[in-house]
Amino acid sequence: MDENTIICRCSDVTLKEIRDLIAQGYVTYDEIKRITRIGMGPCQGKTCGQLVLREISNATGKSMADLNFHNIRPPVVGVKLHLIAEEAKRQEGEKA
Predict the structure, then answer these.
(1) pLDDT tens digits along 56-84
(2) pLDDT at 72
(3) Residue 36 to residue 13: CA distance in whole angstroms
(4) Which residue in 25, 24, 18, 26 sits closest to 50, CA to CA?
(5) What φ, ψ does residue 7 adopt, rounded to 5°?
(6) Rounded-to-integer distance, Cα 2 and Cα 42, Å
C-alpha cells in the first residue's frame, strides 16, 4: 500500500503517519488513537480500526488476536428522552 493512503477518512490519517507513530514506539491502538484521533470520528473505528491493528501486528510480530482494540466507553446510565424533556419544562417553569 502507498504510504499516502488514507487509513482513517474521518480524521484524515495516512498510512505513513500510523507507521511513523509505531516506529516511535506507540504500539497500541489506544496510544495511536489519543495522538491522531483515529477511531473517534463517525465510524468509531469500524473502517480504520482493523487497518491500524494490522500495521501494529506487522511491526510488532504479535497476532491481531492478541492486540486490544480501543476501549468502549458506554454511558454510565441510559437516559430516556422524555425525562430530559420533562426536566427542561420544569426548568422553564421555574424561570417564569
Answers:
(1) 999 999 998 888 876 666 656 778 899 99
(2) 61
(3) 7
(4) 18
(5) -90, -45
(6) 24
Question: What is the pLDDT, as a whole number, of residue 24?
Answer: 97
The fold of the 6-95 domain, in CATH, is Arc Repressor Mutant, subunit A (1.10.10)
Q: How many CB atoms lie within 10 A of CB 33?
A: 22
Q: How far is CA 75 from the centre of its chain?
A: 16
Domain map (residue ranges) of the chain: 6-95
DSSP bridge pairs for 14: 6
Question: In sequence order, which residues have a C-beta less than 8 Å from that of residue 86 and are 6 or more positions away?
Answer: none
* Type of residue found at 26: Y
Q: Are 36 and 13 in contact (CB under 8 A)?
A: yes
